[in-house]
Design brief:
This protein is an alpha+beta fold and 227 residues long. It has nine helices and four strands.
Amino acid sequence: MSLNNYKIVTYEEIVADSEIRTYIEKGDRHIGTMGYTEHSFAHVKRVSKIAADILTKLGGSNERVVELARIAGYMHDIGNVVNRIDHAQTGAIMAFQLLSRMNMPPSEIASVAAAIGNHDEETGTAVNSISAALILADKTDVRRSRVRNRDRSTFDIHDRVNFAVENSETLTIPDKRIVRLILKIDTDICSLMDYFEIFLTRMMMCRRAADFLNATFELVINGTKLM
C-alpha cells in the first residue's frame, strides 16, 4: 500500500466507530464485575480532552499530534475487554488492528499504540509527547462519580480514596509550564495517608511524564501543595 492510500483518521471517526465503542462498553462492564472504578465513556472522553488540552497549552505540538492524543485518550482502556491485567499492552495491539483497518498511516499508529501501551503505572513510561499527555490525563482523573459501589460500609481503600474526592480539576498553566492536579478531599472519608498509599506511584508517574514535556507536575490537596 502506497502512502497515498493512507488516510487522516479523525477523532470524530474514532468516536463514531461502533466496534471501538463496543470494546469500551464491554471492557468497562467486565472490570465493573470485579469492583473496579468506572472506565467507560465519562472517563475516556475526559482523558481525551485533558490530554489534548495539555499538549495545546504547553505548545510544541502541531494540531495533528494533539488530535492523536485525543484518539489515544479515547482508546486507551479498550484492552479491559480482554483482561484488566496487561490491559495497556492488549489495548495497544487492538489499536494496531483497529487503526490499520481504518487506514491510518503506520507512523501515527505507532505513536498512538505506544501511548496506549505505556499508560499503566506498573509497566509504562512516557515515550513520546502523546504518551506523556495521556499519562497525565489518565492518572489525574480521580473523582467520586467513578465509584460504582454505593454501600459505603463495604468500601475498600480504592473506593474510599475516590469517593472522598469532592472536587477534582486538572489545570495546565502555559506560562509556568505547570500541570496541576487540584483536589478537594473529605478527610473524614479518606486520610491523606490513604490517598498517598494508593496514588503515590501514579503521582510519580505524572511527575516523570511532565518532565518529558519539559513541564512540572504539581499536586494540591485541600489548598496545600504536596508535590
